[in-house]
């Protein structure tokens, strides 16, 4: 089913945007022309969608919880979060954000790509998301 069909079937614009974003994330499509207001009003469902993707990618509960705590502190599960002073970007606040291109060309908007890159980073630098969270707690960054 196409994203436009989903949008036509749902009466509420907010629900239509949420359904379209979920469909796009599920199929790997990127929505780039949504108005800023609509994106802001759907932030909670975008966060929920990103969390659901992370749950699938990180089946171990302890590792998911540690990853989630880092992301909550770093970006509040906002895929397009940008640190105004450093320029760090995305769910895991990569610096520079373009580093995430190694996980996929859609790194700016795809939570799965950002999660994949973040997991690789945490595993290679700290050994696991739990170890990264332990470091974050001791230092306030990771």
UniProtKB/TrEMBL annotation:
Keywords: Signal. Residues 64-130 form the Transglycosylase SLT domain. InterPro entries: Lysozyme-like_dom_sf, Transglycosylase_SLT_dom_1. Transmembrane segments: none annotated. It comes from the Bacteria. Residues 1-38 form the signal peptide. Gene3D superfamilies: 1.10.530.10. Pfam families: SLT. This is Lytic transglycosylase domain-containing protein. It comes from Streptomyces luteolifulvus.
